[in-house]
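[Solved] Which block belongs to which protein?

Original post:
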Amino acid sequence: MKTILVTGANGQLGRSLESSISTPEKNNFLFSDVDTLDICNKASVEAFVRTNNVGYIVNCAAYTAVDEAESNEMLCLRINTEAVRNLGEIASALGLKIIHISTDYVFDGTNSIPYTETDYTCPLSVYGRSKERGEIVLRSVCPDALIIRTSWLYSEYGNNFALTMLSLGKSCRELRVVSDQVGSPTYAADLACAILAILDSARSGVFLPGIYHYSGEGVCSRYDFARKIFRLAHLPTPVIPIETKDYPTRAVRPPYSVLNKKKIKQAYGLTIPHWEESLKEMIHKLNV
């Protein structure tokens, strides 16, 4: 059985994938991060892949510090674009299956209906452009790649909106949260299960390349998301709605980035949980 290499293992999706598998070693999973494999070094990656009999790559590695990317464009592009090219070229040359994770930030947010996979991309930030370029170079060097765009990822791990709100809710008298940014929160554990289902399908001989969208069901604003987090965590902290212009950031966020998930649900028979139900699960796991 070929090994499944998961890059970016210390990130929230990588950790969610590992925690979703009871016995990773028996399922031939190999989790790596920059300390064990630098995906920016193509020669090292190719040697690693050959040595470990890798047949599948799940690329969860990414530069995700959206605001910091505005002043670290070269590093952001190196990880989100050039390293992706390395993985794609190796996958193509050696006949590997590759699943790459991308983002809703490839869109500018001017839509009023959920974005489909064929909608025009027009990123507003360095981070978004780096991820868009990563998609483009991957598809050019490895046409059989499978790309999953996701949105508003959160989990029990790392740095994300949900954990930040929980922390601030315990220490602030009130919070001001933007109400004019609309999307769909995605629980990393749900996305991990979807990836595992795709891998199971691939192992059975069915792997359908292309771009797919995956996010939690339902739609909300950042303000709605924060209020629900506090309600489930029994935090009394008041949440005040504000507009994006009242909370300036270095990187511009798309005001609307809801993703249409019809394609991935039909292709792989997935049932996607509603974001509120998944948030309840995460809050329960944290025991807050």
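(Second protein starts here: sequence line, then its structure tokens.)
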Amino acid sequence: MLQPYHGNITKRLIKSPKLYFFDVGLAAFLLGIENPRQVSRDPLRGSLFENMVVAEALKYRFNQGKKSNLYFYRDRKGNEVDLVCVTGTDLFPIEIKAGMTITRDYFKGLNHMVRNFPENVPNGCGLVYAGEKKQQRTDVTIVPVHLLNHLFDTCGG
């Protein structure tokens, strides 16, 4: 279970936790996915990718003997960030996208969070995607999924 980040704001936020599988293969099996070709066309591909990244983030912390400092953020207007790493009062929002190329839409939730918590996001944001190259865009570090742990080190991993 990934708990929602509430912060000390007066906006109406979603306060129900999100459930993730530690075994993404089991989740795929339960969805009836039997081969890689099916995954690439499945409408839940993005959800499975997000599930995998969140599970790996949690495992990374737990394997270092640390507790989870990971949350998600969503308000009632649909603004959302998939993963928020909290260290003290600092936030490191991370968006997770299954796409192979970066689009402007990927930054919507991150930009919203920076606008609403400007003093709490001193180290920028992160974006995990299914592409191949690490990139930097202003205050957003973009990493392919195989460099995931580098991003978690940035957020107090």
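Accepted answer:
You had them paired correctly. Confirming on the second one: Strands lie at 70-74, 80-87, 90-96, 125-129, 135-137, 140-144.
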